[in-house]
């Protein structure tokens, strides 16, 4: 499976825009239940004025809301971004920490966000399980599991080391554009002969 993903797209990239680890944390925190395209539209201008925890605090919650009010749940997200900026300054000297345990102490940052940040900002071989990976892991039979953590641990176990760094991106892109939630595009899927899904669609 990963050999084929690799051949089709050797250097897969995430679609969220960011300029440093801090802005990646913010972008991922803002992306819950929102599209990457919608988040990018808002953050392009936001990151021009607030690309560090210090500048984000200076902007303040109301100033931040002006930038992100097109994004769902923006009030709660604004609170979290201000609170996590404060904690980054107070506890981590304004730097984004590089362990999952520390990242998870930041307001609004859960295991999935921590895994995304570790993978993209720091190059760790973590696999963040979002709705797309959860679906693809189960449908294909690659990493079945009743909840995201089970799927993540199964992916950790079955994905060969050499593919781990990009596994998150390959699977997310596959889920977003091919193995879609409502109607997977099985006829044009490059892993259909090794996928175990029983209800494959036909052309
Ligand atoms: S064959 Fe269909 S169900 Fe299986 S991975 Fe491809 S798109 Fe998804």
Give the strand tally.
0
CATH-wise, what's the superfamily of the largest domain? Hypothetical protein, domain 2
Give me the number of helical elements.
10
Class by SSE composition: mainly alpha
Mean pLDDT: 96
CATH topology (fold) name of the largest domain? Endonuclease III, domain 1
Secondary-structure arrangement, i.e. CATH architecture of the largest domain: Orthogonal Bundle
β-strand amount:
under 5%
Which shape, going by the Cα principal axes? Answer: elongated
Could you state the order of secondary-structure elements as H and E? HHHHHHHHHH
Distance between the termini: 22 Å
Q: If you had to describe this structure to a student in words, what would you say it looks like?
A:
The protein is built from 10 helices and no strands. By secondary structure, the chain is mainly alpha-helical. It has 2 domains: 102 residues, Hypothetical protein, domain 2 (Endonuclease III, domain 1), CATH 1.10.340; 69 residues, Helix-hairpin-Helix base-excision DNA repair enzymes (C-terminal) (Endonuclease Iii, domain 2), CATH 1.10.1670.10. The protein is elongated, with a radius of gyration of 18 Å. The model has no long low-confidence stretch (mean pLDDT 96). Its cofactor is [4Fe-4S] cluster. InterPro entries: DNA_glycosylase, Endonuclease-III-like_CS2, HhH-GPD_domain, HhH_base_excis_C, HhH_motif, Nth. Pfam families: HHH, HhH-GPD. It is an enzyme of class 4 (lyase).
